[in-house]
Amino acid sequence: RAAITQYGLRSHLTQQLLQYIFTADLLIPYDSQQIASIFLSALRSATAGSAGVDVETAVDVTLLTTGVYLLDSTVKGPLGGGLCALLLGRSSTSRQGIFVIPGVIDADYTGVIKIMVYTLTPPVSIPKGSRIAQLIPFRPCVPQPGDKERGDGGFGSTGSPQVYFTMDISKTKPELTVTMIEKGGDRKVIKMMLDTGADVTVISASQWPQHWPVTNAYTGIFGIGGVQMTK
Hints:
Protein name: POK9 protein
Domain Peptidase A2: 190-231
InterPro entries: Aspartic_peptidase_AS, dUTPase-like, dUTPase-like_sf, dUTPase_trimeric, HERV-K_Pro_peptidase_A2, Peptidase_A2_cat, Peptidase_aspartic_dom_sf, Retropepsins
Keywords: Aspartyl protease, Hydrolase, Protease
GO molecular function, one term: aspartic-type endopeptidase activity
CATH architecture of the largest domain: Distorted Sandwich
């Protein structure tokens, strides 16, 4: 169905697939390579010796911020022949101030291939049909593949749902009331400022109860004021 939609009922690719489905012909490795080459033949590489094929954008877009944008390409999976592909940016794209975040296109992905891009110097306009990315095909070597089919799902569709703390951004400091409980049952309620870039919890020494135990830490906290030793 995907082959008919993308290439037409009378295309060479569709005719080959129908032949293998409704006849007793064997599909040998050479045939798989031929089918894969037909899928990829719709894409064009920059030179005869290029390792990949170029991918065009399907829409006009203007990058107004430094955030990540998700752009539709003109290519739809699967690539065929059990092939996967690396989605990388072209070197000329980076020189224009447009950066493509690398991605992996799975062999069983059937949706539209999307390109993740960002810029450090907005605004930047990307016209429809711009060849900003390329597909580097490869054959997967996973020893024990799973039973689940990806289909047209992407960007975390096979992972478990996750919930993260969110709050509205305003001019006031983002604060949260925290209750600390010591092993003996003693409690201390303090109001702390949230920092989305922090990977540890930092509590001021003035807010730590003096009768609670502490141990010296061998790492410091790096900030604007320099390095501060911690406990």
